[in-house]
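Hi, here's the filled form for the chain we discussed.

Project: internal
Contact: R.S.
Residues: 155
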Amino acid sequence: SRPELLNKGSDADFRRLVHGLLGFLARHEAVREGHAARLGLAGIEYTVLISIAHLGVAGEVNVKTVADHLRVSGAFVTTVTRKLQALGLVSKTPGDVDRRRVLLTVTDKGYEMLAEAQRDLTPEQAAARLREASELHYLDRNPTPSSLPAADRRS
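And the returned structure, exactly as it came back:
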């Protein structure tokens, strides 16, 4: 391990951080898939749709903007947005300055769909979904000294 990642000669804190981030990622994926399923979309389609909506607040959005934001290829974003366009959720228009650059916008239908996904979820349903999710995130949040590796136990 790198010295800057060590705490009292051990990388256990860093490993717990990484483990926690992986748990968070799994929960985030589950939430994304749940939202997408309610809309009849695949998870990545929902992610691209909501990314276009959020990025559009700051200005024009094109394939490269979304690809850079999601750290995927432009070809991948083009494929996903083609499906979203066919569903009437995204529109594509040539750019004003560079006609080769395609601008992406969420259509009224797309915004209505995103709003609908939030509209009918009651607090009880939200709580039930959280309970159904993996309990990994909640386990061992405050480990007892005996559950820590010997090198990490404080005397």
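Let me know if anything looks off before we file it.
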